[in-house]
Amino acid sequence: MDDAVVSTQDIRKAFRSKRGDVEAVRGVNLSVQRGQVFGFVGPNGAGKTTTLRILTTLLMPDTGVATVAGFDVKTEAQKVRRHIGYVGQAGGADRSATGREDLILQGRLHGMSGSDAKERAAELVAALDLGEFIDRIVGTYSGGQHRRLDVAIGMMHRPVVLFLDEPTVGLDPQNRANLWDQIRQLRAGGTTIFLTTHYMDEADELSDRLAIIDHGVIVAEGTPRELKRDIAGDVITIGVGEHDLHAQKLMSLLKDMLFVRDVNEEPEQLRIYVDNGESALPPIFRLLEQEGLRLATITLSVPTLDDVFLRETGRSLRVEAATAR
Amino acid sequence: MKVLTDVRLLFWRKMLETLRNPVYMLTSLSAPVIYLVLFAPLLRRVAGNGVFTSGNVVDTFVPGLLAIVAFFNGLFAGWGIIDELRSGVVERFRVTPTSRFALLAGPVLRDLVNLLVTVVFFAVIAIPFGFHLHLFGFAILLLLISLLLVTTSSFANAMGLILKDEDRLAPIVQGINLPVLLLAGMLLPMSLAPQWLEVVAHFNPAYYVVEAARLLAAGDIAKAKVAQAFLVMVPLTVFVMAWATRAYNRAIA
Known about the structure:
Number of helices of chain B: 12
Shape of chain A: elongated
CATH architecture of the largest domain in chain A: 3-Layer(aba) Sandwich
Largest sheet of chain A: 6 strands, mixed
Number of strands of chain A: 14
Distance between the termini of chain B: 30 Å
Low-confidence stretches of chain B: none
Order of helices and strands of chain B: HHHHHHHHHHHH
Radius of gyration of chain B: 19 Å
Shape of chain B: globular
Strand order of the largest sheet of chain A: 6-7-8-3-9-10
Number of domains of chain B: 1
Number of helices of chain A: 12
Distance between the termini of chain A: 46 Å
Number of domains of chain A: 2
Structural class of chain B: mainly alpha
Number of strands of chain B: 0
Oligomer: heterodimer
Helix content of chain B: over 70%
Order of helices and strands of chain A: EEEHEEHEHHHEHEHEEHEHEEHEHH
Helix content of chain A: 25-40%
Mean pLDDT of chain B: 89
Largest sheet of chain B: none
Strand content of chain B: under 5%
CATH topology of the largest domain in chain A: Rossmann fold
């Protein structure tokens, strides 16, 4: 028996714009099993947030079927809402209230009695370690505290599935790590989590399964391990520093080497995909020497989800993130 | 009733916000005082020239001003909702089973309470300036301008949700404000207007409110103009609230 908490069949959504209709989501099929952390990954504008908004009843799909917690998002929106938690990119905590008031209000809006809501709020404050700031006005919170409260608000009514939209955007590394811990803790407690992110390392770190979306379609899906295994071998990254004048010539020379599968040029560096990194290093060194190219850096690593994205889309997320800045 | 509980919860949330920022309340209380001190003396001068046909000039001026306050206070709601869109509060509530009507009605009710406090305060302050308070008429006047506030506040909430941006909201609010204000005879009675202007005024719902408000403040309850004002405002309020509820319900991309 299929135990999918979230499933979609061919959902599509177009938005009208001045240049005609833009299809943000072009036939997405997904299935998220109970108890999983499901990572939904892609660059900005790929259709992640639109898909998430459809699943959380904020947007109607144009066509296709989506069920969440067993209910149809189109025809049973209120029932879907009863069973999901949602933490949007902006958060959602009321800045003029205290954190505890926010928690209790959320519980009450989900139909809890006042005393149940208070009890549940206290439980979450203890479990998620919010006691230090929960009775202060939210407007005074730091970014990390605010985000922890947002997640707690989403968990108030014990949802079947918690949707997190880019939860770590804007957080410093320490708060990011804290939030990751919080997400793992929720998962250990049995909550299904649907998480969007454009950070590949985040998806890799947290997800049981993940899907990569690009231009409104899913280009890869599986466990992080499966996806990376498909790119067998190693990655050698060479920093070419100021010398990227030679990069074109160097790339074609590298591609001619038998053990090199692919080479990708990025700003000031080349990523070389090889069968066996250790045995590939010496000949690559020799080649660079012949060409009179001074190396800035060289790194040998295993493929990451960035490499998966690159293979599926022909574009590098690192480059896109760099140019977006 | 889940709807009533939701309305109460969301009303109280906004009310707490107001109580925690007494500056807002003080600002809205000070406006009528400024009008009375800086504008009413001018009217007294005009009154001597036979501009006002009946009674005390303050009795003509104050009811119109109460209607202005209701009208303005409601329209300001648009800014609040844009702020809440940005902080994600609106989205957060929309992903709960909360009644969509309550999402609108909670904040509107807060605006209404603010208005009633302001208006009662204003009426009392106006007494030493020569305002005659007829209690029963005044109670019905409160009901009438409440309808006006609920309409403008609902409208502004919905416009905020649709436009999502202060810079786009401002010209619309401003574009409505001035003609409605002038065509309602809030500052000076429309009976002073040339005929074409008075004809145009009849297309303005606020005109009926102001005309009726003047009668009600004078204690003239059983007048056709009072009935007329309610006949205009009740359906308008229901219509605008229904439309604004739809704005909460509809997909907001």
